Amino acid sequence: MDFSLPESSFSYKSCPEPQKIQQKFKEIISTCPRNSEWTAFTDLFQYQGYWYTPRFLEGIVLAQQQFQAQPHDIILCSHPKTGTTWLKALGFAIMNRACLDDSRSNPLSVTTPHECVPYLEVDLYQNKPNRYPELPLLATHLPYTSLPESIIASNCKLVYICRDPKDVFVSLWHFLANVKSKENGHFPLEKAFELFCQGTSKNGPYWDHVLGYWKASLKWPERVLFLKYEELKKDPHFHVKRLARFMGCPFSLDEEREGVVQKTIELCSFQNLKELEVNKTGKYSIFSSVQVDNKKYFRKGEVGDWKNCLTEEMKERLDEIAAHKLEGSGFTFDFQ
Ligand code: PAP
User: Fold this and answer.
1) What's the 172 CA to ligand 1 centre distance in angstroms?
2) C-beta of residue 322 within 8 angstroms of C-beta of residue 214
3) Cis peptide before 33 (omega within 30 of 0)
């Protein structure tokens, strides 16, 4: 596969009526519920039951209006901080395993996983085509019920990853912690926790996000693969093979014998990715004016790090909320 990024290879329809979409976005943002307590850059806006920053919301409206999924597309879906970066790396490595041996030209060694697999809502919004033309992988933080209609209609495959809510919250809080709040102070853990519990956090409520994909995976198991971060950590060999099979590119017996599964796991491991120069010093442009240090996507990569941040009371509360919200669904988190 040619790993050079073409200037304009996007498979999205070019936007025929930008003003109409801009108008729709303005209408939505002027009428939807608004919350001023969430930290950092801006208020959050509630759209179709979930909370977003205005920039993401604009990208979502664009994606919903414009995105044309292809039947062979594979969309990597997740709530923020549940293992997106890892899943992007694994998806990319599995699909391109025949050409990843040369570490100098291997994209996963020289670019961050976020550049290997673009975000649907972010990249559409940015209008900066950066999709590998032969690679059917895209990622999104959108909840199942807000996915563009063409994704559902095209029958393309979805892979979802979820994680213990306590670790999701702690990861999210650390990510935001050194971003200044509107009052120019840090975002207090207790305040962030309260909002996360209420579901008023970026892309929240988290449990609704999980439930949407969980139900879809029960209904259409051949179309929606549901993964848990904790299970992937515990038995990467099993789940990486499962992922490859689901994506339509199973590992052959020869590949298994030659250790290709293990190599893929090691290439995408937290330790390997974290130590790469690009992930230690590089930056990822979420939007043209917002750059994030790549190293912020590689903090600890552990199961149960919440124990270093949350009190027993906070643990009980979050576990209880999650158990209550998921009651009757047949789904449980792997609580640690
Ligand atoms: P995003 O939604 O902003 O892209 P996402 O990748 O979903 O973030 O989550 C980041 C978390 O995944 C971080 O967790 P932590 O804060 O608890 O440490 C990050 O360390 C972890 N992570 C990143 N890459 C990997 C990996 N290869 N293996 C395991 N965990 C990883």
Assistant:
1) 10
2) no
3) no
Q: What is the pLDDT of residues 172-213, one digit of tens each?
A: 999 887 555 445 557 889 999 999 999 999 999 999 999 999
Regarding predicted confidence, which is higher, 34 or 287?
A: 34
Q: Is 305 in the pocket of ligand 1 (CB under 6 A)?
A: yes
Q: To test ligand 1's pocket by mutation, which of 52, 138, 298 has the most ligand atoms within 8 angstroms of CB?
A: 298
Structural domain that includes position 291: 23-326
Q: Is residue 239 part of a domain?
A: yes
SS3 158: strand
CB atoms within 10 A of CB 332: 11
Amino acid in position 200: T
Instruction: Indicate the number of domains in the chain.
Output: 1
Residue nearest to atom 27 of ligand 1 (CA): 270
- φ, ψ dihedrals at 244, nearest 5°: -60, -45
Distance 87 CA to ligand 1 centre (A): 9
Confidence band of 11 (pLDDT split at 50, 70, 90): very low
| CATH number, domain with residue 316 | 3.40.50.300
Is 14 part of a structural domain of the chain? Answer: no
